[in-house]
Task: inverse folding
């Protein structure tokens, strides 16, 4: 299947989208990215892009923080993305990566007096984590908002997450759970975290150095609307993870992934928890365009 990129204002084969070795963003982490899922519905022969608009609104916010002049509106970005995926003609689950970045081939640490550019590519991408994840608390912490703003997807911030992920994998785990600078639970390296405590959902709050995940928001809404379960957003201490009834991670790449074990302590009975399983099922129907109530979150790619 040929893959295309939107690069320097045109659609080109992915293999032709290349940047120079001096590109500013490559050296100083001066880029903002998104991760968007296209979910294949094999019955309808359709790919649905999930919450496209929200992803591009977050990208716009990131560009403001990085002083990147993104010369496309949210609607234009949505249209370009649909056209890109349509050209690729995928018939499987995919992942879309938009990137706005400082494109000047220039040296010097700064945000000013640099050109900006924007690209998107799309690739097939299946499950990101195993069916049941084994996690460990990382020795690497999330940054404080005054060090690097954790609420936008700035490329440079992700070195911290890369440290954490590799530490976890090299120690035999699937994913790391990072703490906020003050020691409270923050999130996974590419996911938000939820616990079930006394039958309610509990998740770190915006002030716990988390990325305000779009999947997180989706799960909060689905739990409330479909299961009548409220989510408490608050500080969480490490020992609450070990004693929670259930635990799961949420993210565009990871969807809703149950956590079976943290720091070699079994969560619940080590199987997928009851509430987690229900949310997984609802979420999976919603993102594939199978639940009419939430169709406004799903952008179909192929014209019928
Ligand atoms: C650090 C981090 N936290 C959380 C998330 C989950 O966010 P979303 O659900 O918007 O994909 C992501 C992925 O984008 C992430 O990179």
Result:
């Amino acid at each position: 299947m040929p893959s295309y990129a939107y690069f320097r204002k045109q659609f080109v084969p992915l293999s032709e989208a290349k940047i120079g070795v001096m590109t500013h963003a490559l050296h100083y982490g001066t880029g903002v990215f998104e991760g968007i899922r296209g979910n294949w519905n094999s019955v309808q022969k359709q790919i649905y892009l999930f919450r496209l608009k929200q992803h591009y609104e977050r990208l716009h916010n990131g560009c403001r923080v990085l002083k990147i002049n993104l010369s496309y509106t949210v609607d234009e970005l949505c249209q370009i993305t649909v056209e890109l995926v349509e050209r690729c003609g995928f018939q499987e689950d995919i992942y879309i990566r938009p990137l706005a970045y400082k494109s000047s081939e220039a040296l010097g640490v700064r945000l000013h007096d640099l050109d900006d550019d924007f690209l998107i590519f799309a690739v097939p991408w299946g499950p990101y984590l195993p069916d049941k994840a084994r996690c460990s608390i990382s020795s690497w912490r999330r940054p404080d908002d005054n060090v690097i703003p954790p609420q936008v997807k700035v490329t440079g911030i992700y070195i911290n997450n890369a440290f954490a992920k590799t530490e976890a994998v090299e120690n035999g785990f699937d994913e790391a759970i990072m703490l906020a600078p003050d020691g409270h639970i923050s999130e996974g390296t590419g996911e938000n975290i939820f616990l079930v405590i006394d039958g309610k959902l509990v998740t770190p709050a915006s002030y716990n150095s988390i990325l305000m995940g779009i999947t997180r928001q989706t799960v909060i809404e689905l739990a409330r609307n479909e299961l009548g379960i409220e989510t408490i957003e608050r500080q969480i201490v490490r020992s609450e993870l070990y004693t929670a009834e259930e635990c799961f991670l949420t993210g565009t790449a990871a969807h809703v992934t149950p956590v079976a074990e943290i720091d070699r302590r079994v969560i619940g009975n080590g199987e997928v928890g009851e509430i987690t399983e229900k949310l997984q099922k609802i979420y999976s129907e919603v993102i594939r365009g199978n639940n009419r109530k939430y169709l406004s979150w799903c952008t179909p790619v192929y014209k019928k």
